[in-house]
Amino acid sequence: MTIINVTIAGGSGDLGGKLVQAFLADDSYQVNVLSRVNSDSKGLDQLRKQGVSVITVDYNQFDELVKALQGTDILICTLHYAIVDELQPVLFRAAKAAGVRRVVPSDFSSENEAFQRLVCPDPAATERNIIEAQLEYTRYFCGAFYCYLTTSHVGVNLENRSVTVVGKGDKPFSLAHQEDLARFVAASLKDPRSRNARLGFESCTITFNELIAAIEKHSGIKLNVTRLPSDPSLDFSGEDIMREDVINNLFSYAADLEIAGPHKITNGICPSVHLTTLDTYLADFFSKKA
Ligand SMILES: NC(=O)c1ccc[n+]([C@@H]2O[C@H](COP(=O)([O-])OP(=O)(O)OC[C@H]3O[C@@H](n4cnc5c(N)ncnc54)[C@H](OP(=O)(O)O)[C@@H]3O)[C@@H](O)[C@H]2O)c1
């Protein structure tokens, strides 16, 4: 069996950590993680204990990056969103110089450009960086992660027992469980159809009204629903998405405008990947919380 050597830049992070576990569970892969000098990420020691090669790098030292990437077949970026624009182009150039075959950029979010512009000023940069580096790529797109549904990030505020819905709340949108997505990435990177492809993943499709009903059922909390009118002309660009009042409504608007997920779902290329239902996730979440 040919072993695929993957290096995950940001493998100590939230999604990166799930990807590391999915690759470790699949004996087709050898896993390395790139981590910043002086990183205070908590998961690093655990990764080392699991036998992951954690390579500490100064992302500003190109030669150091090239050396760290030598022997890597696929470079996967799961960097914190605020640092992607700065680090990803350098990483791709270093990957090219090190003989890396394929890159997976730090996407893992909506495929819609209007939505992407909210988190990065230049959504076309990733495409340009891939072309400039002349490397194979696989890009993964998905909707919001399950773990954000019970935070105020999608407009549901359990503490205040409130939720904001834009429009009728009846438009279907995609959601993804990070562990499912990670297994899909590990499975699909072995499939030839992932070469130079944009893949869309979802764990489930749901409407906002169904989401509210599911959260109420599992939390036992009756939510006060504020309904805002649908507004296709809405432009969040330039807004600080870390501001709670912005992010609270942002996802709800995106769901209503049908810009919150991938253009096309391609789960079908890896049908054996287990999908966690939202019901299972929420039942588990609220039982641990009780
Ligand atoms: N669909 C969704 O709902 C959703 C939600 C959140 C994120 N995402 C996507 O998932 C991907 C990963 O996001 P995440 O939330 O998992 O990331 P994260 O945990 O916030 O950060 C990942 C890693 O980036 C490194 N990092 C953090 N700050 C850095 C800095 N200033 N300079 C260099 N490295 C830094 C850290 O690794 P070291 O300390 O080891 O260097 C960290 O563990 C992104 O592409 C994001 O767009 C999607």
UniProtKB/TrEMBL annotation:
Keywords from the named record: NADP, Oxidoreductase
SUPFAM superfamilies, per the entry: NAD(P)-binding Rossmann-fold domains
Any one GO MF annotation of this record: oxidoreductase activity
InterPro entries assigned to the protein according to its UniProt record, in alphabetical order: NAD(P)-bd_dom_sf, NmrA-like, NmrA/Isoflavone_reductase-like
Domain of life: Eukaryota
Key word Oxidoreductase present: yes
NmrA-like domain sequence ranges: 6-235
Homology family: Belongs to the NmrA-type oxidoreductase family. Isoflavone reductase subfamily.
PANTHER family documented for this protein: NMRA-LIKE DOMAIN-CONTAINING PROTEIN, NMRA-LIKE FAMILY PROTEIN
Name of the protein: NmrA-like domain-containing protein
Organism: Thamnocephalis sphaerospora
